[in-house]
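ENTRY TYPE: paired fold submission
RECORD: A
CONTENT: sequence, then structure tokens
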Amino acid sequence: MPSYFAIIAGKDEYLVDQEARECFAYAQKQAGADAEIEKIPALLTRVDDARAIEVQFVDALKTMGMFGGQKVIWLQNFNWVADSVQAKSEEVKESLDIMLKAALEAADGIYIIISATPYDGRRKDLSALKDKVDKFVIHSPAPKSPFDKSDLQAEGQLALVEDCFKKGGVKWTAGAPEAIVAQVGQSTRLVVTESEKMVTYVGPGGTVREADVMLMVPRFGEGDFFEPIEALMARDLDWGLASLERYFFNEDSGRPLLAALQNRLRLLIQIKVLAEAGEFRLSEAGLPKGQFETASSRHGAKFGSAAKSSANLFSQNAWYISNKVAPAAACFTLSELVDLQLACGDSFDAANRGRDEASVRALFLRALAVRRAV
């Protein structure tokens, strides 16, 4: 058995890399200053690459230094357990089996770190070694149950944003850290860099507002353009009209925006109904910690499938609902939310006649210019 064997895997390459670096530093310290260090790039771009990487890794495990001593081997950017055509090929799986078997049979004095990303949680190649290695970490594992909404990665990212703001000497309003995570949360590296950018934008002693984030932070990955929706939910008319100008500068159609707004409204209507039934205690800060989880355990199964859908409030992420969506439910009456949902349908009809921007702008003006008491 090797002296030390660590496997770090996950979908977020930043988190995997950070954890792997800590393991690498630990292994170097344990192996001593005279230990031989070998970093092996394991990024697979073609199936044919697998054999060469396999040979290099196995040779590294078997070849000790000329004067003996310890050896630290880091297999980096290991994408052999991703959801890709290459990773699913029989040739790659065969080489993977050989490499993992060789790692487990490595001699004493060998320290091994494997950092695997992206990671397909359905694959069992690495998880089968969980009880055989010294350290095994999977970032963002699947929920323990269909209605478990814990998201440790998102919570960790929020902590990183707030830590960055504190170090930069800036203040922030409620919702600003969540807005950064919502925009670029698929990448922790971008969460950090965009947080640093916001610190520079407002300057020491300044305050980061959610509107600033939506203006300055581009959305990462797939998804709709959400800034106008955030402005509407904040009941900020100036921000709303300005965000529509930016939206229609880049987009020809208002239908993706209307579809995203309808999805948000479906969630808000469910939140508002549950609040009026006494299940939620709403405020402009959102839901108190733990309240969503309590309601989910009580009512989640009654909402049907746990598949993520705006038609099922309890299929959503807890922090997103509690901190990002719920605050708007305190700013609108149930009647206003229903009226907005119906207005989206009218705007869809107008969009089909080529009047996208005018119809969406009219929707925003009606919603933000008049308040309904009931």
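RECORD: B
CONTENT: sequence, then structure tokens
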Amino acid sequence: MLHDIGRSKHAEQAYSLDDVAIVPSRRTRDAEDVDLSWRIDAAALRFPIVAAPMDSLMSPATAIAMGQLGGLGVLNLEGLWTRYENPEPVYEELASLADQAATERLQQVYAEPIKPELIGARLDEIRAAGVCVAGSLSPKNVQQYAGAVEAASPDFFVIRGALVSAEHCASVGAPLDLKQFIKTLDVPVIVGGCANYHTAFHLMRAGAAGVLVGFGGGSRHATLSVLGIEVPMATALSDVVAARRDYLDESGGRYVHVIADGSLGVSGDLAKALACGADAVMVGAPLAKAAEAPGRGFHWGAEAWHPTLPRGRRVRFEQIGSLEEILLGPSRRADGSMNLVGALRRTLASTGYTDLKSFQRAELILM
């Protein structure tokens, strides 16, 4: 329903994950009977959690660890691991900086050119461990480095930006037309962020195997404050899930996965995103708290080191446990920051569901 904003503008009411809660059903289940497995394309994962392609939490080693635990780790292919042969000294320096000096230094270290040969080397390192391989580029770098990515034959190619459309129009330079580009690749593509029905529908028509919904964690608040753009996650997911349903009908049965990306700080947020219809969640901040996270307790995204318009900042987190403990437990905290998979399993069991597809039909209530 549209609401009037004065005499000339009308706006839809939108809801964040904080505005909704999951309603219990008439039955409960045993948590051991819950199946959290998620299959996308040829990949079969033990749980529907994807680690965001952010340098503060994903290195080749942590991407491997994520895969071995049962999820999917996505490496940032335009980050420190493809700009430096050995980025560990850079991480050490960044961890030693005071907050007021961090933004400028981040801009400087990310001015180092991307080295295409390192793209293949890092993806090969992950593949050698026998886990699912995924790497990410932003839309502006896709055409320049896509060849290096495709040559490395990852299981998934992630195109991730704060705001992504199927067709980018530009008067200067070659525009990125995902409708044409995705069709040329032999690699399944996951693309986003998007936050409305029409953008998602066009990305699905372009051939995406998965669509990222949201603006990518920390960039969400920065995008709102700097650009004035925002769609709360519960509403965004509902709209994109409707696009998935309509595209499934239009395409004669092609299912495109919906992945929530942003506004996911604790386990309850993950559960609510899945109940809103997401197939999986992409998380950043919860995993930045792991002892193995390369950021050493600091967390930042690409918006923090943009060369001309930084729209975020480096954030400090307490490192609360190992990556395994944060994902699989056991938890020593009662705040939803550890044992994310166990919490999801408990949510489904407590509301009477045994698998993710049926849980997407869970009843929600406005708070």
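NOTES ON RECORD B: The chain has one domain: 43-323. The first helix runs from residue 60 to 69.
STATUS: closed
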